[in-house]
Amino acid sequence: MQENEIIGEQENTAPDENGGAEQDEKLYSQSELDQRVNAECEQLRKKLADTEKLAAMSEKERADHRRTVREKELAEREAAVAKRELIADAAERLAEAGLPKQLAACLNYSGREECEQSLEAVAQAFESAVTGAVNRRIKGNVPKFAGSGPKDAFLDGLGM
């Protein structure tokens, strides 16, 4: 097959509400299919290697391995929960300060202290940017006059 050739795959042939058969078709190139197949093969090879490794272990080693895996999964879950708590706290603090929620995407959630520092920095930067923009708007453009001042036709008529 050629590299550019498109291969079709029908997914859904269930009858639609009108009684006709609705067909959703996805198209994949050969390279996309090769990538998917290679990725799945690699996952299966890893699973097989892990299974063989476990089979070669003694009962005590297997129990230690299972415990280590469980501890790692638990630590990952705890880190995810801690990050969600930091995100919720940061969103709450942003709302209390009257700042937009979108600023939460700019914060560092690697730890509570880092989150606090980044929250302070973002709040200060936002406030200074808003203040600068407001000051520029208030200041406006000063009209420029030619000569010493504005000419008044009435005063010119009086000779002043």
Overview of the molecule:
By secondary structure, the protein is mainly alpha-helical. Helices cover 62% and strands 8% of the residues. The protein is built from four helices and two strands, in the order ββαααα. It has helices at residues 30-56, 59-96, 112-139, 153-158; strands at residues 6-12, 24-29. The protein has a two-stranded antiparallel sheet with strand order 1-2. The longest helix has 38 residues, at 59-96. The chain is elongated and about 115 Å long. It starts with 5 loop residues before the first strand and ends with a helix. Residues 1-5 and 8-13 have low confidence and may be disordered.
Question: What's the short version?
Answer:
This protein has 160 residues and is mainly alpha-helical.
